[in-house]
Specification:
The chain has 1050 residues and is α+β, with helices and mostly antiparallel strands. Among the domains are: 1-43 and 365-517, Multidrug efflux transporter AcrB transmembrane domain (Multidrug efflux transporter AcrB transmembrane fold, Up-down Bundle), CATH 1.20.1640; 54-141, Alpha-Beta Plaits (2-Layer Sandwich); 518-560 and 890-1050, Multidrug efflux transporter AcrB transmembrane domain (Multidrug efflux transporter AcrB transmembrane fold, Up-down Bundle), CATH 1.20.1640; 573-607 and 614-622 and 631-722 and 812-856, Alpha-Beta Plaits. It contains 38 helices and 30 strands.
Length: 1050
């Protein structure tokens, strides 16, 4: 390390020399960097957050008529096993519900989503699934990819629900899918139009017709055919055989068979009507029935660009809408959070620069010196943006936040260097030396170079643990950390290039006139600090005792503080999940959610609300008809009222018994889903085979969660037994008539469930033609029992089958190939870890059924694991700091003296946490890690300068006078670096709930509090300890001075 430091310093010395030798060229290079940095910023992707999406491939398998048990046994298990064995898969989740299996496979971050899809497609293509069952891949999108909700409503007099849905499906959706960057659009609400062929079973039996007979006849009679080409007279004529009916009456005239010498038409055995397909989803907007289109972007697409393109497309669509139809694009827009978050961070960044400028001007009282120091900020930021562009980073809240947190530190290196150069130039002018100004600037920069390099290296080393945080939090904080460290390293480059060049160009002798000594403000500080420093030198024992007490208090405060994961975002909107008892039909669920929506819409501050109930066909969320999601948009300017608005929403939902509610935010819910697969901060998963036992354990966990303070709306996943009508064909009776049970089952499946036989083109829309029994026969159990079957001798279904009410599961959930039951809850407060820990301790005492296990996930798991990991890595970081300091100073005592600033900084940070709420989240922990490197700078500045003075000016070694002089010499850079770093964070301390500041505020709180306390300690305690422990390492001191001087000379 020592040789590496010498090599680094030697290289940087050459850079300083070249910058001074070619001053104008250096300036020209940085002017070019301004242009390149500006171009990089303008052309970079802009998004709400860094890419935190794990590449996920969804597999949908529809099996109409299959019960959940059959879907689980015959389909879900096969697909899961095939997907789980794919290379790179990290987690597999699946659900089996009525007629549908959904499997989601998560891959490692950074993997190629298109290669992942190819792998999954190859594996599922070889599955041996039931006939007519085919798994398909969902669209290329991501959990965070939903960027907008678009709504369609109309007045009752102008458009019915079928027309509105047709408009959405065949006009709006296709137009939006053509927008570059749009991946998928899920449509909910309205009625999907279909032509229904309703058959009379008695008439069919009379003519000896099966449904398959009718299906074959109609299927061939409604689809146009081609006769190829007719070549005649030297010309080609396409031959078209046009049989597609133009209206429903034409279908009824299609011939089916003959009977007693005459033709039997479809009208003889059934009717054709315009109806709607069975729906599993509905929507309302501001209390009115409507259609909602949920728009998702492709993973690599830029949110703002895609949103703007979608808006352009919608503006074109609005021009052609039927009269009375309204298109709304403000139900939910991810763009709102992006704009609000980025604007707040931009503002905090600019305000931080202004604060830094004021502090520099106050201390330096020299416009040119202030300017030279201050330009390190824009230059460092521009260099950082260029690196961002090269690395493919996006402009987002985290990357900008990293720069905002570092803005005060960006001038630290320049402050130390420029202040020392300015002091040396004044001494040079006063002495009348003939040495060149370039030489003086070079020496002044070189003197502090070692301190600057070591201090920067320490910050980099101690921040490295942030990059070892796994999961979503790690992806968020790694982006912040990358921006922070790149900006700091950029400031180091600036401090050895443009800064000395500008000093040589702008600080000419005539500009030093009147600035020979310290400013009045600096003299005032030194005057007041002198007795304080001397008191500290004379009272080291009380200071040591105070430090010990502070460490104990810090540990106590940390143990008593609440623990939580990443703080919640402030998105300007809310999402309310409404789950009614399983078995509730779509109409009842929709009506219930509509009432809740209307009441929420009356809350002051709510701009609008809309909701969806159930699910669409390609929706990756397996929401039943009993589930609704209400989307609430708040009025602009109410970002600071989030907690109040959420409390009002909670009051509303408390007035509606009979359903489970979960209140959250759109993006936050998606982040939670990335953590655990469940949209809730508290998630407990119970694994096992016996569903009844799983339910018992889940109810126990729910009861324990409900007892914990701050836990809101605990609920157990709705996997219950539902009544179902089962048909058991009697094989013996059927055999007497020469009929198999399979023939009966096939006839019933097609007649009751229906079979699609083709499509009719109606303008741009295509309408399905569906064949099934007339509703009067299939609409109730008596009608089904009396069904006539087309088999000789069989009078009715009731004669050859037993109809029995029984119970079956509504749904099965899997994770990792095992059945799982999820218990989830929201949380208000800060000690989410403590609440879950109490539940865990209680459940650990319970004897679980054999084969059952419990996993505590969500925020609890991520916070606990990351806290432990950060604690270990922080300890490793401290050892690395000790090692770097030892390699620099060749003395363990001196290295430890510098590190004494760290406990004082952590103490100040903990006090700041308690003042601002008393809960510690992951961002706070990162702040504590940052402090260890930041505050070491002051000790390095003080002790390295003291060693210089002892080596150059003291014949008596380390004396009180030399320690005092060294401290006073460095009091200005110490105070300046600390104050600009701390006070530049003030804009982040104000408005903690503003969008974009959610993760930056706790980080700023810790750094601000830690810098205040450590600066006081460093100016009083560090000189005292250095003086009183000077004899501890005196045999080595001379050698230390020689080696340190060698480093400085290099």
């Amino acid at each position: 390390m020592g040789m590496a430091m010498l090599t680094t310093n030697s290289m940087l010395n050459r850079i300083i020399s070249l910058s001074l030798k070619h001053q104008w060229r250096t300036v020209a290079v940085f002017v070019a960097l301004i242009l390149l940095g500006t171009w990089s910023f303008v052309t970079m992707k802009v998004d709400v957050l860094p890419d935190i999406n794990k590449p996920t491939v969804a597999v949908f398998t529809e099996a109409e008529g299959f019960a959940p048990e059959e879907v689980e046994r015959l389909i879900l298990s096969q697909v899961e096993n095939a997907v789980a064995g794919a290379p790179g898969v990290t987690r597999v989740r699946g659900t089996a519900s009525f007629g549908l299996a959904i499997v989601q496979a998560e891959f490692d971050w950074g993997s190629d989503i298109y290669r992942n899809r190819q792998i999954i497609q190859e594996r599922i293509s070889r599955l041996d699934l039931p006939p007519n069952v085919r798994p398909v891949l969902g669209p290329v999108s991501s959990i965070m990819g939903e960027i907008m909700w678009v709504g369609l409503t109309s007045s009752d007099e102008t458009s019915d629900s079928k027309e509105l849905r047709t408009l959405a499906d065949w006009t709006v959706r296709p137009a939006l899918l053509r927008v570059p960057g749009v991946s998928d659009i899920i449509v909910l609400g309205g009625d999907v139009k279909e032509w229904q062929v309703n058959l009379n079973p008695e008439a069919m039996r009379r003519y000896g017709l099966k449904i398959s007979d009718v299906e074959e006849k109609l299927g061939s009679a409604i689809t146009n055919k081609s006769g190829g080409l007719l070549v005649q007279g030297g010309k080609e004529y396409p031959l078209r055989i046009l049989v597609s009916p133009q209206d429903m009456a034409e279908i009824e005239e299609i011939g089916i068979t003959t009977w007693n010498g005459r033709g039997v038409r479809l009208a003889d055995i059934g009717t054709v009507v315009s109806g709607v397909s069975p729906v599993r989803g509905s929507a309302t907007i501001d209390g009115k029935p409507g259609v909602i289109l949920r728009i998702a972007k492709q993973p690599e697409a830029e949110t703002l660009a895609v949103t703007a393109s979608v808006d352009d497309a919608l503006n074109g669509i609005k021009q052609s809408l039927p009269e009375g139809v309204t298109l709304q694009n403000d139900l939910f827009r991810q763009e709102w959070f992006i704009d609000a978050g980025l604007n707040n961070v931009y503002k905090a960044l600019l305000e931080g620069v202004v604060v830094v400028a004021i502090i520099l001007a106050l201390f330096l009282m020299h416009r040119r010196v202030t300017f030279i120091t201050l330009v390190s900020i824009p230059f460092s930021i521009l260099v950082t943006l260029i690196v961002f562009k090269l690395l493919g980073f996006s402009v987002n809240v985290m990357t900008l936040g990293g720069i905002a947190v570092a803005v005060g530190e960006l001038v630290d290196n320049a402050i130390v260097g420029v202040e020392n150069v300015f002091r040396r130039l004044r001494e040079w002018k006063a002495s009348g030396s003939t040495e060149s100004i370039q030489s003086v600037v070079y020496e002044g920069t070189r003197e502090v170079l070692s301190s600057i390099v070591v201090a920067t290296v320490l910050v980099v080393i101690v921040f490295l643990p942030v990059f070892f945080i796994p999961g979503v939090e790690g992806r968020l904080l790694a982006s912040l950390g990358s921006a922070y460290l790149i900006a700091l390293l950029a400031s180091l480059v600036v401090s050895v290039t443009i800064t000395p060049a500008l000093c040589a160009l702008l600080l000419t002798p005539k500009h030093l006139t009147g600035h020979e000594g310290d400013t009045k403000f600096v003299r005032f500080i030194k005057t007041k600090m002198t007795p304080v420093i001397m008191w500290g030198i004379d009272h080291v024992r009380p200071l040591m005792m105070a430090t010990g007490v502070g460490i104990l208090i810090t540990v106590g405060m940390y143990m008593l503080a609440g623990k939580e994961g990443i703080p919640p975002f402030n998105e300007g909107s809310a999402t309310i999940s409404v789950v009614m008892p399983v078995g509730t039909d779509l109409g009842t669920s929709n009506a219930f959610a509509s009432r809740v929506e209307k009441e929420i819409g009356k809350i002051d501050g709510v701009a609008r609300a809309g909701h969806i109930t159930g699910r669409a066909g390609a929706d990756p969320h397996d929401s039943g008809a009993n589930t609704s999601e209400i989307q609430v948009t708040f009025e602009q300017g109410l970002e600071g009222e989030r907690e109040k608005l959420f409390a009002e929403i909670q009051k509303v939902v408390d007035r509606f018994p009979g359903a489970d509610f979960s209140i959250g935010q759109p993006i936050t819910h998606r982040v939670e889903e990335l953590l655990s697969g469940v949209r809730a901060p508290i998630v407990v998963k119970v694994y096992g085979d016996n569903l009844s036992e799983l339910k018992q354990t889940g109810d126990m966990i729910r009861a324990e969660l409900a007892k914990q303070e701050g836990v809101k709306n605990p609920q157990v996943q709705k996997e219950v037994l539902l009544p179902e009508l089962r048909i058991y064909p009697d094989r013996n009776r059927l055999a007497d008539y020469g009929v198999s049970s399979g023939e009966v089952a096939e006839e019933l499946e097609e007649g009751l469930l229906g079979v699609k036989i083709g499509q009719i083109q109606e303008g741009a829309a295509r309408t399905d033609v569906v064949l099934r029994y007339d509703p009067s026969w299939r609409g109730n159990s008596d009608g089904i029992r009396d069904l006539s079957l087309p088999f000789d001798g069989v009078e009715s279904l009731g004669n050859v089958a037993e109809l029995r009410l029984d119970a079956g599961r509504n749904k099965f959930s899997h994770e990792g190939g095992k059945r799982v039951l999820v218990v989830s809850a929201n949380y208000e407060g800060g000690n989410i870890v403590g609440a879950v820990e109490v539940v865990k301790q209680t459940m650990d005492k319970e004897k679980l059924p054999q084969g059952q296990s419990i996993s505590y996930e969500g925020t609890y798991k991520s916070q606990k694991e990351n806290s432990q990991r950060l604690g270990i890595l922080f300890a490793v970081g401290l050892l690395l700091i000790l090692w770097v300091l030892y390699q620099t100073f060749k003395s363990i005592p001196i290295a430890l003296q510098i590190m004494l600033n760290i406990p004082s900084a952590i103490f100040g940070g903990m006090v700041a946490v308690w003042v601002t709420g008393g809960e510690i989240n992951l961002a706070h922990l990162v702040g504590f890690i940052s402090l260890a490197g930041i505050v070491s700078r002051n000790g390095i500045i003080l002790i390295s300068h003291t060693l210089n003075l002892v080596g150059k000016e003291s014949r008596d070694g380390v004396t009180k006078e030399i320690v005092l002089k060294a401290t006073l010499d460095r009091v200005v850079p110490v105070l300046m670096t600390s104050l600009v770093t701390a006070l530049a964070l003030v804009p982040l301390l104000i408005g903690a709930e503003e969008p974009g500041k959610e993760l930056l505020h706790p980080l700023a709180v810790v750094i601000f509090g830690g810098l205040i306390s450590s600066t006081i300690v460093s100016l009083i305690f560090t000189p005292s300890v250095f003086y009183h422990f000077r004899h501890h390492d005196m045999p080595k001191l001379e050698n230390i001075l020689k080696k340190f001087q060698k480093v400085a000379d290099q």
